[in-house]
Amino acid sequence: MDWQTLGIEAAGWIGAVLVLAGYGLASAGRLDGRSPLFQWLNLVGAAGFVINTAYHGAIPSMVLNIIWCGIAIVTLARRKV
């Protein structure tokens, strides 16, 4: 595996961990779903998914995660964080 492929796979796995961490913490009541941390976890996690899914040609998943990033960006902008 070359370094580019390794980086793309790492982006996908790190993205998965971040999105799951945010969801898990919010579901456990340890993190507010409107908090900046939750939004940043989702933004960075979804960006990792965008990189990975674009590379693999998974267009529906890529589009979903672009929208997911957009939601996080709008929420953060409204909070001015």
From TrEMBL:
Keyword Transmembrane helix annotated: yes
TM segment ranges: 6-25, 61-77
KW Membrane (keyword) present: yes
Entry keyword set: Membrane, Transmembrane, Transmembrane helix
Pfam family, one: CBU_0592
Family annotation (InterPro entries): CBU_0592-like
Positions of the CBU-0592-like domain: 9-79
NCBIfam families according to UniProt: CBU_0592_membra (NF047864)
Protein name listed in UniProt: CBU-0592-like domain-containing protein
